[in-house]
Amino acid sequence: PHPSSLSITIPHHHPSLPTGADPTMASIMSLRCLFSKSHVTSAISNNGIAMLGRPSLFPAVAPSTTPMSQLQFQPHPTITFPVSGQSRSKMTKTKKRQAGKIREREARVAQGLPAKPKPPRYRPKNLPVINALTREERDEESKQSDTAAADEMKSKMAIQSGKEENLRFLFDGLVMSDRVRRLFDLKNGSQREVVSSQKRRGMELFQLREGDTGSSAVQVVALTTRIQQLQTHMAKHHKDKSTKRGLDRMYVRRRKVLDYMERKDFESYRKVVKSLGLVR
Questions:
Q1: Is residue 203 within 8 Å of 213, Cβ to Cβ?
Q2: For residue 249, how many other CB atoms are within 10 A of its CB?
Q3: At 50, phi and psi to the nearest 5?
């Protein structure tokens, strides 16, 4: 038929438009949805526009006279696609760690334990303290410990003073004439040899066994001897920045060793601090 004789009736209602909207706009939207379908597009390309000439193709909708203020908007229908056989398998490290913690807590609860473990040194607040000492008793115990440490140190110093004086180049204990002994006496040695001898004699007072050079107390004595030597140097050379930096490192190193002794062996810590006159 001739194009002028075609009569196309298009619905005036579209799901995305409110009820009673403009029929022209509804017709345009319906036509757009119609031509977006693949089977309609293929049919039009094969048979031409003559297939739309039937007036009963779409039911006609009478225009609405409802004002816009009274129109009720309807939401666009949501299309859901069922997904079967798909699952999310990739998890982040944080989620894996959280899942592991949850499983661990569930296992603890199943065993009758609390969900979270207690700290290593946890003590309940209501735990009674047994054999607690008063302030006076603790002070008296500290005085007794200090007295015992002082007596032990005096005995070691007496034994050390009974030995022969240290000679240069570690020639102690060798049989030699008086003339050769005077030659190897520390009075003829350098400042470095004198400091090394003093350091060795101080380390002997705190040794746990013969030849001990690595225990914590011996390390503190060695570091203190070197610190005193550098302090004497810095008193004369104020602008020696590199030596000042090395001295600060030694302070930190000695502090770390003392902290370790305070945690592990408090009696040795008290003895070293009292003997060397160190201040916290």
A1: yes
A2: 9
A3: -65, -25
Reported pTM: 0.50
Task: List helix spans (H) across 2-86.
Answer: 23-35, 38-47
- Return phi, psi of residue 104, to 5°: -65, -40
CA 89 centroid distance within chain? 29
Q: Cα(158)–Cα(31) distance, rounded to whole angstroms?
A: 115
Task: Please name which of 16, 34, 26, 33 lies closest in space to residue 62, comparing C-alpha atoms.
Answer: 26
Distance, in Å, from the CA atom of 231 to the CA atom of 123, rounded to the nearest integer, reads 45
Query: Are the CB atoms for 229 and 191 separated by under 8 Å?
Result: no
Sole residue written with tokens 């398998």 = 89
The length of the chain in residues reads 280
Please name the residue that has the structure tokens 């001897």: 225
**Dihedral angle, C-alpha 9, 14, 19, 23, nearest 10 °:** -40
In this predicted model, what pLDDT tens digit does every residue of 179-230 receive, in sequence order? 888 888 888 888 888 888 888 888 888 998 888 889 999 999 999 999 999 9
